[in-house]
Amino acid sequence: MFGKLFKAKKETFTIRAPITGKAVSLTEVPDEAFAAGHMGKGIAIEPTVGKVVAPFDAIVAHIIHTNHAVILEHASGLQLLIHVGINTVAMKGEGFNGLVQMGDQVRAGQTLIEFDIEKIRTAGYPLITPVVIANEDEAVTETEVVEGKVTAGQDAVIHAVLAK
Amino acid sequence: MQQTFTIANLLGLHVRPAKQIVEAAKKYPNTQVFVEKDGKKNSAKSLVNVLTLGAKHGDAVTLIVEGEQEAAALAEIGAILSANIDGHGAKA
Fold first, then answer.
1. What is the pTM for the complete model shown?
2. Nearest-CA neighbor of A63 among A32, A91, A93?
């Protein structure tokens, strides 16, 4: 499958893990919209460290006011949504510390959000974090995901063929 | 045509309802769909643009549709804007 991607002669863009943990299929996310891919193609990470880092140089296109989700925009136009946990919107920011603001230019590896794994778990919300391409119909033509143990900022989780 | 809706969802237009709006808007490729709040008018076909409205529960959002099947688009997307998507289960 990879060979096919690289032979396509289009630019392949590698997205590294924004969180340290275990990368699993989106189908394991206990939320139908994410699991069915309606929120975009990508992967999910079961976090072992409560920190979201920028997987590439980007502009912060949006950070939810409750700091549980962020959308980064790469220079190619690709937008990546990182949504920490499921239904964590209901925590109203409790347990989340946002370190960036909308419009910020961030560097690969820079910490964007810190979150309290224990607090979220105690509140009863799944920590599994979908990492999906928010504008896949405009930005990418194909994607491949890589599952397994990942370290934030180091291991690739998504290979995307850019549309332009 | 346009119509103003009050956001019924207790948690506001967060990621999931915003995405539902985007998906509904994209069903109408020959129609321009915008959401407007406090003078900020954004395309409803982009998740980032819908989210950056920052619409919260009780906020008034105007839906503006121009093109084919305007009435159908207005009805479908308006229903999402005025739905309490998170329902009773949301610990709001």
1. 0.89
2. A93
